[in-house]
Amino acid sequence: MAKVVVTNRIPQEGIEALQAEHDVTVWDHEECISREKCLELIAGADAVLTLLTEKVDDEFLDAAGEQLKVVANVAVGYNNIDVAACEKRGIVATNTPKVLTETTADTAFGLMLMVTRRFGEGERVIRSKTPWQWGMFYMLGMGLQGKTIGIVGAGQIGIAMARRAKVFGMEVIYTDAYEMDASVEQELGAKKVELDELLSQADVVSLHCPLIPAGQEGSTHHLIDAEALKKMKPTAYLVNSARGPIIDEAALVEALTSGQIAGAGLDVFENEPTVHEGLLDLDNVVLLPHLGSATVETRTAMAELAARNALAVLAGKTPETPVTKI
Length: 326
Ligand code: GLV
Description:
It is built from 13 helices and twelve strands. The protein has 326 residues and is α/β, with parallel strands linked by helices. The chain has two domains: 3-97 and 296-314, 3-Layer(aba) Sandwich (Rossmann fold), CATH 3.40.50; 101-287, 3-Layer(aba) Sandwich (Rossmann fold), CATH 3.40.50. The strands form two sheets. Strands 8-7-6-9-10-11-12 form a seven-stranded parallel sheet, sandwiched between helices. The protein has a five-stranded parallel sheet with strand order 2-1-3-4-5. Bound molecules: glyoxylic acid. Glyoxylic acid binds next to loops.
């Protein structure tokens, strides 16, 4: 029996799959585990299931010990994991793609609808008991039909978002290091453009790229900075369901305040769970507390996939969704 540590609560299905074969310790509390407790808990583990709130770096790997074989992240994004450090030690790291694609695209689409149609703002009017009345010109938003969506990062979630946008009658442009599959590009009528062109043409810019830290090749840290925001139309909206640090949040507050862009829908933030104070005062912003993959079905599937990945590595097999080179 191997020692498996799960650094936070995850759906029971994932825990049970692990328990059927191994000795499992779970940090079974509502709040996130502290760094100190986490480093204590993982000592001697052969496998660790992590959430995106755990930083998996040399300190973490040292604390676990030399027997550690696998870090199974219960998230698709793995910017919390130092992949090179894992590879150097021969540790396999895995993530949970595919199972959360549709749910996360739903979140991005919801943000787009909420901000362009001012649904968040409208809801706040009612809740604050502000007097209101139906009016021909009351709280008009922007219709999506015939508008252009610019998908930044045409991976699985970006494509799922583009599919939704197409059904709503939007034109799709995208930017990515890779071409979309030709049949998908054709199905969506999507056109690949450079980022600058996308920023200047899109009515809605939706971010779906991974967060690649500053200083690394292809870094996406602050990809949307003051300069990028200046390239957007004053009538355009920005949606982020990827990772907070892709946007320079201070520059975004400035652009939203000055009318440089029309609005933003954000599910992720630069310093989660802290949200830039400037965003809280703005009506043209919709803010969600990182709910991208937050459905019962999807979180269950994520836990099951992470468990299968850990079990595969412990059994000497190749996991389904590795992020380290195998
Ligand atoms: C959530 O943000 C994830 O990366 O799965």
